[in-house]
Amino acid sequence: LLAEIKTLKHDFGDGRLVKSIEDVMLASILKNYVKYDFVVENPPYVRVHNLPEKQKEYLEENYESAYGQYDLYVLFMERSIKWLDEGGKFGLIVSSKFTSSEYGKKLREFILNNSKVEQIVDVSTLNVFRDASIYPFILILQKEKERSARDQNKIKVALRPEEIEFIDRNLKFFDIQQSRYSQNRDYLFDLLSKREHLVIQKLEKNTKRLGEIAYITRGFRPPPEDLVFEKLEAKEDSKPYIIGEDIKGPFCFLEPSRYVKYDKNRIPESKPPTVFEVPKIFVRDIGLRASACYDISGLYCLKTIYIIEGLEHEDFSLKALTAVLNSKITEYFFKAKFWSSHIGGGYLRFRKQYLDLLPIPITIEKETLKELESLVDKMMGIDEIQNKIKNFPQSYVENLAEEFTKKTITFQSSHKEISVGIQEAIDSGYNISTGKKEEPIYVDTKEKAEYVRLALEGKSVKKGEKLEILVPKSNSVVKEILKDYTKDKKRLEKGKNVEDLEEEINKLVYELYGLDKKDQKVIEEFLGKF
To answer: Which of 3.10.129.10, 3.90.320.10, 2.130.10.10, 3.40.50.150 is the CATH number of 38-191?
Structure first.
């Protein structure tokens, strides 16, 4: 063919046209017929949904690794391995997500079936790329057709080196037997030491995946504005809902302040009401650790929260599962298995594809179940009181059939935390000050002054923002409210604190999974690295 092109060039002298044809043919030969000893690349990052349908069809027909919602870099990696001659080497810097994501499963299998993984260097904490959303690994592979050679291969792994270590090439490596990846569920590429991996194996022994015994979904997309109401404006048929940021930590979510008229036909990714109006667990999508909350009030939620319900396990309960999800074991499992999918600041994603894989013990002693449920109740009780105190005075007056005086304050300056001062007025009553530029607020009794102080103290406001405080006209009612508030504060002080209760939960969950002191030490030391 090249000889034919040369004849055309000689006979017709159309150098530009023939040269273009020649370039195309040469590129085709280089891409499809020539084998290489070395390939080095930094592949592009393009999600499959951005491609035309015909192109997607072509790619899926011609690449084994074109699976799920893949990224183009996956296909570049497959092609690069195919370009290699036997024994040839492939080096690249690439997004770490393929090592644990659902879309990377076929690529992981392809790599393990066609090459030896020589090195993996996790540089996800270094500022390698301008795009802060990409957390890369450096991989070096060698093409290898012999299965025994691949399985016996020991991968050199270096975890999150400091910048100076990376520049000086002073990396601390440890070995992982490649056969481990072939045995892992979905060919997961974990970066665990031998001891850490043994703990994972122990966790997965005599268990079922959460996705096998529970229904997991997520909430709806933000509704149209005309369907959303504040609490005080809520219609009778509207539903309270929460968003991801309302979940403030394990066992803890704020009282809903938003309501939605739940019109399924107008709300994107809506779910049947029955999904929300049953006992369930909320799990925030993004967090440094899992933040799971048990709900029996029928709350709705946005898609930034995952929902677990319909548990099919004779010995387990949703409440006990909430304890497991908030334990160090779940934190360890997610960081050990899915760290490569982390986002900025070390935050993890608690998506369905990962929650599905969480191992849940097949059996649990009734006594252990009761203890876990009791501890969850105590944690929720603390959360309830903390929320009540935080939402003072609304949480103390919302069910009172009383007359109120509305105090409206428009702030003349911004305050990170309002500092409140109380002074007696010249004639009678009290003036409440919140800053030099702010107008004082007048009330007629000392109790009402304290009531307003508690309503304002520590709040964050911006310049021009308005706050409205409903103050009961009856001073005796104000006294009762302050009395209830003081009782709640004392209950928090007298009861066990959150740290002590979490320690008890962790102890029970360690026992539930049959982990001994050595296993616990491995987990504690591993989590201490983050």
So the answer is: 3.40.50.150
In 153-234, DSSP assigns E strands to 154-159, 173-177, 207-209, 215-218, 228-230
pTM above 0.85, yes or no: no
Kindly report the number of other CB atoms within 10 A of residue 84's CB atom.
21
Helix (H), strand (E) at residue 213: helix 210-213
pLDDT in tens, 232-284: 677 778 999 999 999 988 998 888 889 999 999 999 999 999 999 999 999 99
Architecture per CATH, 210-381+499-527: Alpha-Beta Complex (3.90)
Q: What is the pLDDT of residues 364-420, one digit of tens each?
A: 999 999 999 999 999 998 888 888 888 899 888 877 877 888 899 999 999 999 999
Per-residue DSSP letter, 310: -
Domain limits of the chain? Answer: 1-34, 38-191, 210-381+499-527, 403-473
The residue ranges of DSSP E strands in 390-512, in sequence order, are 404-410, 421-424, 430-433, 441-443, 466-472
As a whole number of angstroms, the distance between CA 31 and CA 447 comes to: 83
